[in-house]
Amino acid sequence: MPTPTKGARLGGSPAHEKLILSNLATSLFEHGAITTTAAKAKRLQPLAEQMITKAKRGDLNSRRQVMKRIKDKSVVHVLFTEIGERYADRPGGYTRITKLGPRKGDNAPMVKIELVEALADSPKAKKAPAKKAPAKKAAAPKDDEPKDEKVQDVVTGKYDNSAAPNADGSAPEGFTIKGNEDSMKFHTTESPWYDQTVAEVWFKTEADAEAAGFAKAGGSDDDK
Rounded distance, CA 76 to CA 2, Å? Predict the structure, then answer.
């Protein structure tokens, strides 16, 4: 014999309580979330999860057992065809209860009970990845055009009072300060990394480099 539920019933009789829970379960599966009292939600949660477990089985016997409590055939159809498949790879915990605060009037604690989302790694929950368009081949640079995009920015005046490296990578005449666009740092001849730094842009003075948004390399390896 099943153990009687502790506490007061939700209705005036066992039949009334059973009807209340059936109506709550129907609304939950129809709308995905409902607002009710904490007492009703605690009694509804195990019933709703049992029905979802039966819907995951999908056999005729399970459908008949669910239809004893839920009379709306359209809701039963949604439960077995959509909700059951959504949680096919989830072992349990299909619902969530969130506290909302007391209700005005009788001060009853109100909660929101809702269906949680399916597991993100569920094969049925995954969508087919969108096909990427084939990448276009980059046009070969012409001899009279700069091959490096960053050098092109310098030539077109991205930085004032700056110059691009020579074709052999050497510094233009009169430019001694190396600028690195990846780190946005500039190196003077006193910098310990001056020889190891590959200049992407050259400046004449520190003031020109700072005006272009570069910061002077400090004394730590992070500034290299």
Answer: 26
More confident residue, 223 or 9: 9
Instruction: Label residue 50 exposed, middle or buried (CB < 10 Å: 0-12, 13-18, 19+).
Output: middle
Same domain, yes or no: 30 and 104: yes
Q: For residue 67, give its domain range.
A: 14-121
Query: In terms of domains, do 36 and 114 share one?
Result: yes
Long-range contacts of 17-22 (CB under 8 A, 24+ apart): 17/43, 18/69, 21/47, 21/69, 22/69, 22/70, 22/71
Whole-angstrom distance, CA of residue 211 vs CA of residue 224: 20
Strands 185-187 and 215-216: parallel
pLDDT in tens, 87-128: 988 888 999 999 999 999 899 999 999 999 754 444 444 454
pTM over 0.85: no
Query: Residue 114: in which H helix or E strand, if any?
Result: strand 109-115
Closest alpha carbon to 26 in 54, 3, 53, 47: 47
Report how many domains make up the chain.
Answer: 2
Tokens of residue 44, six digits? 């509804």
Which distant-in-sequence residues (6+ apart) come within 8 Å of 53 by Cβ? 92
**What count of other Cβ atoms lies within 10 Å of the Cβ of residue 10?**
19
Give the Cα separation of 177 and 207 in Å (integer): 11
Q: What radius of gyration, in Å, describes the C-alpha atoms of the chain? A: 35
Question: Are residues 113 and 33 in contact, defined by beta-carbon separation less than 8 angstroms?
Answer: yes
